[in-house]
Specification:
Length: about 90
């Protein structure tokens, strides 16, 4: 399982919202309660880069993640570029 940031747009009230979940699952509109909205876009958050002080930390959400991302630290880098290189080399 991976971790996703899902983007939704309600078919009834036309408002938008986002939700983080372990799949591209349907959600209920937080504004009007309209059910079973499918995300129109999804961003994978399985590997993310967090800025922590002067370091950039690469975090990874393991396959076992279900109700929260359960991020594990893969490495710390002096710049975002180094972190991106690390992710690129890994994937
Ligand atoms: Zn709605």
């Amino acid at each position: 399982m991976a971790w996703f940031l899902n983007f939704y747009k309600c078919a009834r009230c036309r408002r938008r919202w986002t939700d983080e979940w372990s799949c591209m699952c349907d959600d209920e509109c937080p504004h009007c309660g309209f059910r079973d909205m499918t995300p129109y876009e999804s961003e994978e958050l399985t590997t993310i880069i967090e800025e922590e002080g002067k370091e950039f930390v690469v975090l990874w959400s393991p396959e076992t993640a279900e109700h929260n991302p359960d991020y594990r630290e893969l490495g710390r880098f002096p710049s975002r570029e180094n972190a991106l290189e690390f992710i690129g080399a890994d994937g």
